[in-house]
Amino acid sequence: VWSYNEESGRYRKLEPVFYVPGPERKLVQEGKPGKYVFVSGTDEQHKIVEETVRRSCEASYASYLEMLDAGVAREVARTVLPVGIYSSMYATCNARALMHFLSLRTKHEEATFPSFPQREIEMVAEKMEAHLAELMPLTYASWQANGRVAP
Fold this sequence. Notes:
This protein is mostly helical. It has two domains: 9-80, no CATH class; 94-145, no CATH class. Helix content is 45%, strand content 11%. It is built from five helices and four strands. The chain has helices at 43-69, 74-77, 95-105, 119-135, 137-145, and strands at residues 2-6, 28-30, 37-39, 89-93. The strands form two sheets. It has a two-stranded antiparallel sheet. A two-stranded antiparallel ribbon has the order 2-3. The longest helix is centred in the middle third of the chain and has 27 residues, at 43-69. It is flat. The two termini are 14 Å apart.
């Protein structure tokens, strides 16, 4: 069971902090759907991605501010903001739910069931896994020994 509490763009002004894929983000998909892999991409592709995402985020945020300055409600103005805007949130869960989440959102060669997560959620899951290993070492070791399958 998970519970969430995310920062509200309805009640407070959102800050201009956006996800812009860096040079380490693999960009090009190769292979068939469901069995594809990502490869790095060219320097030109990375440049296009970074410049386009940054420009789009800046333009969207400028439109957001323009609407706020005109007195438009935050809950309406936020609709122009891209998915890549960062927000803060708290999530709570039990250990079993976390292990299940990690089994779906991390790629690991010792996993009983293969997973092919999107890299951005995998990055979050890797940080969460480190906390699980630190805070619950026996549970973590058991999960690992069980092929990363939640009980």
